[in-house]
Amino acid sequence: MTQLKSVVDTVQNLVFISDRHASICKAIDEIFPTAFHCFCIHHLKMNLLAKFTTPALEALFFKAAKAFRESYFNENWVQLCTHPGVREYLEAIGKERWARCFQTKLRYSQMTTNIAESINALFRHARKLSVTALLDHIRGVLQRWIYERRTLASSRQSTLSDCTEEMIAEASDNARRHIVMNIDQFNFEVRDGNLNGDVDLQSQTCSFYRK
Asked: What range(s) does the MULE transposase domain occupy (predicted)?
């Protein structure tokens, strides 16, 4: 963790996403005291189901955790709280550490540690190698990935991936029903027929999650 600090210490609004392992929490608190440390909702879900053994909790928890708006969070939170002990358990962890609408710094769509878990799975056999051989193996994999993606990107009309293009197209289609009014060059008021909000293109933030 101290080596990581030498690389990212100057990064503003630094956010860590991990499971609730005590050693990770302690290291982040000591070495990155100003960073925002939030938890992987997949690990929390597994702990929640193990502790309360109620399958219905999974969908409610994920909906509450991923909600951008506090009003949507509350709809699922009320149902979660009907299960004895769940409210106390999740509040003890801290809503800001797992619920997107209460985040104190932006974690965007990174709600789990899936990226890290995927890398761990990819190198599960290579981890048996010596340190130098492992590093060389990782370098080779990354080199191949970079080459393949650079080659693919050079043949595309768009600078975005297919997945991103689809997400933007879906969001654009949904936004056709919104009314947008200028506040100034970078700020806009958006009315969606339910709860209105402000969007700041310069800071890339909005007020919707506070509604």
From this structure: 5-47
